[in-house]
């Protein structure tokens, strides 16, 4: 049994369009290294300087790994890992014009 990794649309170019891929490893770091071995380039989009990139959110079974052990969070067979890009909202232009939406 493997770990299911859900891939956001923006990273599916690395997984040949697949929205979910299987991976292996005992930590998030090892899981990402395993994904890199089969989906070249994906790890650089997720990790920088040995830590998760600032605008990448990773959830282990619906728990944000930043509130667990970060990239060293333990994972195991049957776990689900979801990768989500952080989303920021609006430019504030509507407020500057004195209008609200």
Automatic annotation (TrEMBL):
Gene3D superfamilies: 3.10.20.30. InterPro entries: Beta-grasp_dom_sf, Mopterin_synth/thiamin_S_b, Sulfur_Carrier/Prot_Modifier, ThiS/MoaD-like. This is Molybdopterin synthase sulfur carrier subunit. It comes from Streptomyces daqingensis. The lineage of its organism: Bacteria, Bacillati, Actinomycetota, Actinomycetes, Kitasatosporales.
């Amino acid at each position: 049994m493997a770990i299911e990794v859900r891939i956001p649309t923006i990273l599916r170019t690395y997984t040949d369009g697949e929205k979910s891929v299987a991976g292996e490893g005992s930590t998030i770091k090892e899981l990402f290294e395993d994904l890199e071995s089969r989906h070249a380039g994906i790890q650089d989009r997720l990790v920088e300087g040995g830590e998760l990139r600032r605008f990448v959110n990773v959830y282990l079974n619906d728990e944000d790994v930043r509130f667990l052990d970060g990239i060293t969070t333990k994972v195991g067979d049957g776990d689900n890992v979801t990768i989500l890009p952080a989303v920021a909202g609006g430019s504030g232009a509507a407020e500057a014009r004195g209008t609200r939406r």
